[in-house]
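> call design_seq(struct)
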């Protein structure tokens, strides 16, 4: 089960009712083990998908947006190589789900995807379109 906390100076404070209930069951001075992982920014995730939508509409090689998004991630270096028993090699884009990628890594992916778009499709992009893309 996951519990969310907010940092306050040198302590962690429960961020929701579920975390309050959990921490209230721990006795004062008890020692607990905590696996700290910074929560991803939902607004940043929304910006990424807006970037994918805008740049998808600016290219004409892909007909499906999800295939385009996965291709961007693979070209950006975020993929797993799968080798099937018959020797076939397939690249599968890494998951960008909140639990699978921390915020700092997601920002790197996002910036790399911008660079991939500009490298692959940037020659026909106008200055206004370029500004729209890099504003992300």
């Amino acid at each position: 089960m996951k519990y969310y906390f907010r940092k306050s100076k040198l302590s962690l404070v429960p961020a929701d009712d579920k975390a309050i209930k959990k921490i209230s069951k721990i006795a004062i001075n008890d020692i607990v083990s905590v696996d700290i992982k910074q929560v991803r920014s939902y607004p940043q995730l929304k910006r990424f998908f807006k970037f994918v939508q805008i740049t998808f509409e600016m290219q004409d090689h892909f007909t499906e947006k999800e295939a385009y998004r996965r291709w961007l991630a693979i070209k950006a270096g975020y993929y797993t190589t799968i080798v099937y028993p018959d020797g076939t090699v397939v690249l599968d884009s890494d998951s960008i789900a909140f639990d699978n990628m921390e915020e700092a890594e997601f920002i790197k992916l996002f910036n790399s995807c911008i660079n991939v778009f500009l490298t692959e499709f940037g020659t026909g992009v106008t200055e206004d379109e370029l500004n729209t893309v890099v504003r992300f």
